[in-house]
Design brief:
Largest interface: A-B, 51 and 52 residues
Number of strands of chain A: 11
CATH architecture of the largest domain in chain A: 3-Layer(aba) Sandwich
Structural class of chain A: alpha/beta
CATH class of the largest domain in chain A: Alpha Beta
Oligomer: homodimer
Distance between the termini of chain A: 36 Å
Radius of gyration of chain A: 21 Å
Strand order of the largest sheet of chain A: 3-2-1-4-11-10-5-6-9-7-8
Strand content of chain A: 15-25%
Chain lengths: 333, 333
């Protein structure tokens, strides 16, 4: 198995991307192709010990973070994103990881790899922790405007992902809405509710915002606007609450001395939603494993993203998705 | 000033509602009319000392929590909700508070009081704390499906509310979206962005989910679906994170002894988003001050809701709203 890594994308590229790839080459059971400017990559590797699993694939162009996704689709064939995706397209790699311009990466991946037959819209699937494991939330931002059938497809894709990559037996799929009753929601979710109920899924009905943190379902379906707002809300609130706890402890003379003992725990609580912990977000529905890293990915985040890519390929995620959507097409034919 | 309180609505009605009204009669500068079954209300008052500010207004019917809002609109004129709203309609009271069936309360208030001329959709305005004060988020759930002009009106209403009730000079209004750039968002927010920009507002552009917890704007505008998901997400996450902090402290022998000293602080952090702290949510845009209490309101929450109603009446909130929308109509005429 080979995993293509965009060495030039991300706020701390290429240094942290290369450092993460070096770690992964040691720890993850896959070849790692660093895609970008060879001299820059070699300079970052420097004196680090490199094993035979690490390779360099040349690409001279860089799509900057601020460029429009559309710009990335034309005449940018020598960009690190295009070359990295191209390795998967040419079947020289089985997965691609980029912490660069995420809009550009998603557009290039969807266009060049194509989508799994039957999938209308790829979605960003986020792996979120809850007290006793993981769950999936999708779409976390790929599609700001959705139709009911898109949400139905997100339910199907999320269910396959939860089953084969997270190991759930019959994943419980919930629809994010504003009330548990079937009649509650907006026009979109009310129509999607009917489609999800009719789909071949373990659909448990509506869930609410608070259920993201309760052990009640394994896959949470929403449109990309709502999913992104939820994601940013939980990141912002986690940062604020853990800062308040730290402040409260440090400003209390009776507690100050306990802070060192508590520091590690508090950091663990503060970082639990950090996508880097699990490896990033998956662009689910494209014909290949594509991992969308956070722009501020450090070496550990990149290493985890490569590990996550390896697990998704190993689990034959794309093949299982194709089977499920092919069966669906057959039934409805 | 007189404030009508639905004594029969809420999970802990009438006991906690009456207890809250008794507190308010002592502490809030207003007459308080408890609306409901007189014998039940008198039984709850029991031996409590009652001053001349507390009155009872008879209503025999009760709209239960599970009933559909539509049911509340027909032939239920003797319900505590209808009678309490009726006091405002008849100008015998200036504000109404209910912790009962919120859908029914909103429907009755909007129908019987009518809306401020020019307002198309009343919205639920939530007062949220942030590290250095308060801000307003609306709509928090009254309108699951919105048009761009509704969001523009929410911006205008939220701005008036923040100016006259929270004391901001020129409230900064932000549009909740998924990226700060004007081009980011869904169809609804992109169209609303243009309308908000053209409105007579201190509009600062798009804000993101994380900005709900940062000191960057005073009024956050969103549709009622997104607003309700954000509200439930922050309630659920706050409960989860503070439980994790408590657990981490109690399971660490070096920290256990510090827990009593920390208990109060942790409770304050856990309860900061509790609507009861500020008094509840305001149904903004109806012709009268209407406070939507949480179903699980206790005496303190009811007392705070009555205090909040008093402040809104005192600030002449509805009159200011009417002026702003009348000026708007004049300009566009």
């Amino acid at each position: 198995m080979r995993i293509a890594v965009d060495a030039m994308g991300g706020d701390f590229a290429p240094e942290q991307i290369v450092a993460g790839a070096v770690l992964a080459a040691d720890e993850v059971d896959a070849q790692v192709s660093l895609v970008g400017r060879p001299e820059a990559i070699r300079a970052c590797i420097g004196e680090r010990p490199v094993n035979g699993r690490l390779e360099i694939e040349a690409a001279q162009d860089i799509i900057e973070m601020g460029e429009s996704p559309r710009a990335a689709l034309r005449g940018r064939d020598d960009s690190s994103i295009a070359r990295a995706v191209g390795l998967v397209k040419d079947e020289r790699a089985q997965a691609v990881v980029s912490a660069g311009n995420s809009g550009a990466f998603m557009a290039v991946a969807a266009t060049r790899l194509g989508v799994v037959p039957g999938v209308k819209r790829p979605a960003i699937a986020l792996t979120l922790p809850h007290p006793s494991g993981y769950r999936v939330l999708l779409d976390a931002g790929a599609n700001a405007d959705c139709k009911p059938e898109h949400l139905r497809d997100f339910g199907l894709m999320g269910s396959v992902y939860a089953q084969y990559t997270l190991g759930f037996d019959s994943p419980r799929v919930g629809l994010l809405s504003i009330g548990e009753e079937t009649s509650k929601g907006n026009e979109l979710t009310k129509a999607a509710h009917e489609l999800l109920e009719a789909a071949d899924l373990n659909f448990i009905g509506n869930v609410e915002g608070g259920d993201v943190f309760r052990e009640c379902c394994d896959v949470i379906v929403c449109d990309g606007f709502v999913g992104n707002v939820v994601l940013k809300t939980l990141e912002g609130l986690t940062a604020m609450l853990t800062a308040q706890v730290r402040e409260a402890i440090l400003s209390n003379p009776a507690l100050q001395s306990a802070m060192p003992a508590f520091e590690g725990e508090l950091r663990r609580i503060a970082n639990q939603f950090d996508a880097a912990e699990y490896g990033g977000a998956l662009l689910l529905g494209v014909n290949g494993v594509a991992i969308v890293g956070h722009g501020c990915s450090d070496a550990r985040a990149v290493r985890n993203a490569i590990g996550f890519a390896q697990r998704a390929v190993h689990a034959r995620l794309v093949e299982h998705l194709s089977e499920v959507f092919a069966q669906r097409a057959e039934k409805s034919a």
